Recover the amino acids of this structure.
């Protein structure tokens, strides 16, 4: 068993303004990132696989009210919460994705269930709830997803046009001691969204992708631009077909996303274990543990 | 104005068995393909753009009960019809996709509306119906989507395990006289599907992709494998990053889909106007008009 492993997580690139963040808020976010990172590290350290690590790290972030996923999901135009998530196994290229789901405490667990169940790869809307019921995944009442910060953000939008885009996402990528890669992403989507809007998080190749031959990627930002750029898979293709270094590939893809009008960022882990966490937004909540054991936590 | 244009269409690669098809059935399918092709050609011939041509060709196929899309959509496990569709503009990389929608006569028109409206790129589930209402797109009662062939197919599945996979899709790719590419795909999805299952048709990069710099693609087959392979965008990347000829790129991608357990096919048009329509299933309903004006119609 090779003792080398690595993990990176993000808590989204939306609604960040350095001048508005107090020192306490900053510490609170950093602590939440550290907690999610250590949750994933604990699994990898004892020989667990990358899929379990990214799922556990994302569950930790979904359970935290600070990030736009799970409990902290933003409000839709109708005042409820619709969540998207996806997970992908770089070893088998198996994937599970869910879009526009309600009431499920941990959307990434439903995405994992879709992947493990194997009949389908992508479920959306109210009907996906039945799979969660069949597998007895924890559900929550709508009140669970109420947070005063998200409610205030949504209320403000009803009277004042948005100055900042209200997106945000959580995600994780990992390489385990066997060199297997995995990626997971989860989000409450775009604040005030309507019409059953899905973002890139649940689009395999758009916001989530993993392949042992190349890399694992989780994106955050303007979902529409990441979908149109097929951003996550583009990073993989630049590595596989153009032999581009991971950092250059990620930068090229973020430039392409920007050319489509999109801001955001991504976390990526190379098949060699190298991690990059670039963004072209004002900030991106992020943390990683590299193959040498060094830990980084950052916001701006 | 360059007078060269080209168009290819498909009516899906599922549920085809050469020995079960009568001469009359074969002629009926060929006539429907010819009708859809000529609908698209008429637009391109008078200088119309590729987006309008692929949309019109797909509407023709959606209105035909023979193919699994629009009127001819398969039955879900619950006995209703849930449709997916997507359209993409190779000039701007704008895209519109919808998944798991009901009652809309022409799902591709809703996908086009999503793209033109521009706020979102991907809608799913019952909530997407509101956009169709806002834009006064034609709706139909559930009875419109009843066809005796699909009903018999679905009924048989309730008692006998499927011998053949009950998928099928329609799609179109085109290059107009300005050299702009476009792709469109529409489907009723997998027969007897449950849990709000979406397929690759509505996944930008999965079953649908267009980019003036490379190609336009519409796929049909085992949706889950095409999603995991990010098949449509993979063809584009092999052209862009590996300088692979279109035919080789499509074959490589179908081989990858097959390695993931998936059968099916795709239609592709290169930025130079060249068309290929490969498949690894028993057949694929297909037709094309190449840049020289030559018309091909095929099933097996």
């Amino acid at each position: 068993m090779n003792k080398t492993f690595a993990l990176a997580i993000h808590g989204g690139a939306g609604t960040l303004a350095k001048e508005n963040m107090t020192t306490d808020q900053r510490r609170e976010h950093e602590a939440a990132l550290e907690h999610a990172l250590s949750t994933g590290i604990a699994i990898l350290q004892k020989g667990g696989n990358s899929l379990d690590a990214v799922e556990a790290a994302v569950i930790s972030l979904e359970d935290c009210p600070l990030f736009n996923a799970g409990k902290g999901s933003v409000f839709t135009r109708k005042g409820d919460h619709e969540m998207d998530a996806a997970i992908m196994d770089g070893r088998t290229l198996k994937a599970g994705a869910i879009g526009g789901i309600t009431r499920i405490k941990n959307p990434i667990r439903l995405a994992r269930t879709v992947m493990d169940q194997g009949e389908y790869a992508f479920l959306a809307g109210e009907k996906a709830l039945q799979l969660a019921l069949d597998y007895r995944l924890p559900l929550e009442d709508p009140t669970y997803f109420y947070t005063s910060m998200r409610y205030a953000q949504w209320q403000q939008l009803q009277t004042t046009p948005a100055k900042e885009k209200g997106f945000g996402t959580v995600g994780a990528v990992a390489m385990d001691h066997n060199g297997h890669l995995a990626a997971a992403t989860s989000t409450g989507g775009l604040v005030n969204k309507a019409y059953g809007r899905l973002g890139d998080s649940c689009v395999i190749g758009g916001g989530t992708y993993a392949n042992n031959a190349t890399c694992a990627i989780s994106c955050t930002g303007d979902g529409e631009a990441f979908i149109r750029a097929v951003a996550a898979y583009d990073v993989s293709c630049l590595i596989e077909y153009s032999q581009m270094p991971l950092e250059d590939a990620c930068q090229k893809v973020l430039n392409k996303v920007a050319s489509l009008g999109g801001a955001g960022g991504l976390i990526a882990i190379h098949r060699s274990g190298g991690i990059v966490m670039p963004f072209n937004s004002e900030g991106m909540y992020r943390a990683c543990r590299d193959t040498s054991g060094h830990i980084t936590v950052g916001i701006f």
